[in-house]
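To make this tangible, this section ends with a sequence with its structure tokens:
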Amino acid sequence: MKRVAVLYGGISAEREVSLSSGQQVIAALQDAGFDVVPVLVGRDLGAVIAALSPAPDVVFNALHGRFGEDGAIQGVLDWLGLRYTHSGMRASSVAMDKEAAKAVFAAAGLPVARGRVVGVAELEAADPIPLPYVVKPVNEGSSVGVEILRDGDNRRAEIARAWRFGPSAMVEEFVPGRELTVGVLGDQALAVTEIRSAAGFYDYDSKYAPGGSRHQIPAEVHPDVYAMAMRVALEAHRALGCRGATRADLRYDDTAGEPGRLVLLEVNTQPGLTPTSLLPEQAAYLGIGFPDLCAWMVEDACRA
């Protein structure tokens, strides 16, 4: 019987999400027959390392956000010589850095939104690109800190003065239309889901609050767009050098009719595994139950 240590919690802004993911994963792996060791992660890294001795067969990384999916914990696990789920240190760090990831996507010929990284002082002084545009942290996930500025919106300076995500921000054109997402397991894109948020934007609450969004799977889009979304997600996964499970988030501008414009926003190397998360939903759509999904991640880590 494989012994699997599940890392969950963490010290990022996404701690609550990770707690939910971890609790789900622990129960699922127990159902799948693994010997599970829950490791609640806090600020004491020494305590985490101690909890990983004796060494488990696999570490299931259920952390989200900074220090959990940005290459930090991956580097620690590499140092300890432990196998772990999801992507390695390099792919994790590049994917979490929106500027670096965008450069990789563009070099691979994938469609990205126009925009750039700006200093917070520049943002406070004037609109860095024409309205409407999106302001987002360079190194956060789960839509933490994301703001949309539309025509007539006068919150720019206020947002800049209250910014708590470092000295700079990613500013990108706002792409109208629909929110799509595609999960990837290894070398297979799963399905295309359209996300319909009650708030009109797929923010933190829409992602994790019950009833915050509705998911249409498969997405009812033009067949060529569906196929392109599947291809883009898989190519983005490969371009970053990811392994295991990822999820690509895209915008689809069909405001002028179909087929419209598809834009890749980002790749999540630690997709949520909460009761409202999209990757488990896509896996279930293909007949893969949650315990089997988690077991696949463990076995995939063993092959890495």
Observations:
- The chain is about 35% helix and 25% strand.
